[in-house]
């Protein structure tokens, strides 16, 4: 169905977003494989272009100091409670757009990097599933 296709694409874009950001912005310690993410490489040229746009929005979020302060807080732990609180905050006014979806992807990516750097890589797919579940239920 159309919904399943959208979710499959969303999942592929999320996996790609995290993979590329970790590859580009990881600190050497943080490495992740497509296999760990449970994703496949994007093949469709239009999906690749969309993925590049998402990366550009992610690059803009790198410059948001308020966001960076929040994400760099040592108290920020990759738990479902923290994830859901932030996800609800991103969409608190009930409006959905690509920028906000990318903000959610960006946050999930930062949790993945935190999980890798604190040596709990087993939670990576769990974070991805929280993200996709939230999108499926609310977006």
From TrEMBL:
GO terms for cellular component: mitochondrial outer membrane. Belongs to the Bcl-2 family. The keyword NADP does not apply. It comes from Ctenopharyngodon idella. This is Bcl2-associated X protein. One of its GO terms (biological process) is intrinsic apoptotic signaling pathway in response to DNA damage. GO terms for molecular function: BH domain binding; channel activity. Residues 54-139 form the Bcl-2 Bcl-2 homology region 1-3 domain. It holds the Pfam family Bcl-2. Keywords: Apoptosis. InterPro entries: Bcl-2-like_sf (IPR036834), Bcl-2_BH1-3 (IPR046371), Bcl-2_fam (IPR026298), Bcl2-like (IPR002475).
